[in-house]
Amino acid sequence: DQQVKQNSPSLSVQEGRISILNCDYTNSMFDYFLWYKKYPAEGPTFLISISSIKDKNEDGRFTVFLNKSAKHLSLHIVPSQPGDSAVYFCAASMDNYGQNFVFGPGTRLSVLP
Amino acid sequence: DSGVTQTPKHLITATGQRVTLRCSPRSGDLSVYWYQQSLDQGLQFLIQYYNGEERAKGNILERFSAQQFPDLHSELNLSSLELGDSALYFCASSVNPTGREQYFGPGTRLTVT
Fold first, then answer.
1. Is 90 exceeded by the pLDDT of residue B2?
2. Contacts of A70 (CB under 8 A, 6+ apart)
3. Which residues, in sequence order, are bridge partners of residue A4?
4. What is the model's pLDDT at position A35?
5. Cα(B11)–Cα(B85) distance, rounded to whole angstroms?
6. Cβ–Cβ contacts within 10 Å for residue B23, how many?
7. What is the Cα–Cα distance from B55 to B74, expressed in whole angstroms?
8. Could you tell me the domains of chain A?
9. Exposed end of chain A (fewer CB within 10 Å): N or C?
């Protein structure tokens, strides 16, 4: 039973356009969410996070939106760059200490020049 | 470079054998996390240590064990290996026990034949 789902295994976007990566979760007790980016042959890299008390968090070209009622979050990348091509993982945590994260299966983003 | 090192990079072994994976966290980080990523799957949290003590346990099999040493490096021991244990094993570290910004190592690819 997947508690964190990323239903699009892959996504292709033109350079300069917006990339939207989606993530759905089933457990309403999750209260902290993160996005990680992973290049081949490297470990995941932390991108951005959001607490359940917020509905938006922005960091440069990256914005994460959280819709608690829909149990849905999304990562927006604007403008997309070829260097953003990677696998993006959504992760969720349900306790205050956040040490037990549940990761989604990932979405492979390809930004085309 | 995240500052987290993992050795070895690759490991090929036979079923029934035992292996040890090693992780050195970023300088100053007290928490170490172990994850397993099987083919086409997300990261599965295995176990967390904080300053030498086990902090949280995830989907870790009884055949697997870990420890964190006084110098804060950690080892993941996998025994009675099965074909299904073939995966990428990632170590991550964070400065505090919340784990809300983890830095991942490059991973160890384990192949069980």
1. no
2. A24
3. A25
4. 95
5. 12
6. 26
7. 13
8. 4-95+103-112 (2.60.40.10)
9. N
B83 to chain A, minimum CA–CA distance in Å?
21
Task: Choose, out of B23, B47, B100, the residue to mutate when testing the contact with A (most A CBs < 10 Å).
Answer: B100
What is the predicted pLDDT for the residue at A44? 92
Residue owning tokens 């993982």: A89
Is B95 an interface residue toward A (CB < 8 Å)? Answer: no
In order of B47, B82, B93, B105, B110, the CA distances from B68 in angstroms are: 11, 25, 12, 16, 21
Q: Name the residue with higher pLDDT: B97 or A65.
A: A65
Structure tokens at A70: 């829909």
User: For residue B89, what pLDDT band results from cuts at 50, 70 and 90?
Assistant: very high
Q: Is A53 exposed, middle or buried (0-12, 13-18, 19+ CB in 10 A)?
A: exposed
Res A97 pLDDT > 60: no
Buried b (16+ CB within 10 A) or exposed e, A10-20: ebebeeeeebb
CB contacts, 8 Å: B25 with chain A: none
